[in-house]
Amino acid sequence: MHIAIAGNIGAGKTTLTKLLAKHFKWEPHYEDVVDNPYLDDFYHQMERWSFNLQIYFLNSRFRQVQQIRESGKKIIQDRTIYEDAYIFAPNLYSMGLMTSRDFENYTSLFELMESLVEAPDLLIYLRSSIPNLVGQIHKRGREYENSISIDYLSRLNERYEAWIQTYTKGKLLIIDVDNINFVDNPEDLGNIINRIDAELNGLF
To answer: Catalytic: 151?
Structure first.
């Protein structure tokens, strides 16, 4: 079984992944942020490093999805292969931070990879407002994220919403994270767990 959590930078994907993995005894698979050799360079010089970063993420997530399906285990994944292709790469291209040549090359590679992987059994989307995202980003204090602009986050949010409206690859659960605190409030986490249980019981 493959569960995946999607959402903008600072929406709480990694934290919720940890909490749900612990509760359901699922194996967590996290986004490769610590060992990513391009991330710091990208945030300092987006135009130069955007294609390299997106290819790195695409490669990393394609491997992840393959391993998830081959393992036969119950796995929860922090961010999906779709977010790079439908949100981050097109956003960089539209902002003039990725060339047409690179974007077309990237899109062609994604389409090939997508044809070889299955969608998650359940996709959980964490919907968040910009002020909430900014607050969470500042709270966790990753140095390379200090240069992320509100305009950049807003553009990503718009693309997330557009993508989610058209998502039909499998079961979808949308959680509005603005007015809940699933870290400090057990009731909020319990409500999320109940909603997931309801989705999964309809699945299997």
So the answer is: no
DSSP per position, 117-175: SPPPSEEEEEE--HHHHHHHHHHHT-GGGTT--HHHHHHHHHHHHHHHHT--SSEEEEE
CB 50 within 8 A of CB 97: yes
pLDDT in tens, 22-62: 999 999 998 776 678 998 898 889 899 999 999 999 999 99
144 confidence band (pLDDT: 50, 70, 90): low
Task: Give the Cα separation of 132 and 22 in Å (integer).
Answer: 25
Number of other residues whose CB lies within 10 A of the CB of residue 4: 28
The residue from 32, 78, 84, 102 that is catalytic is 78
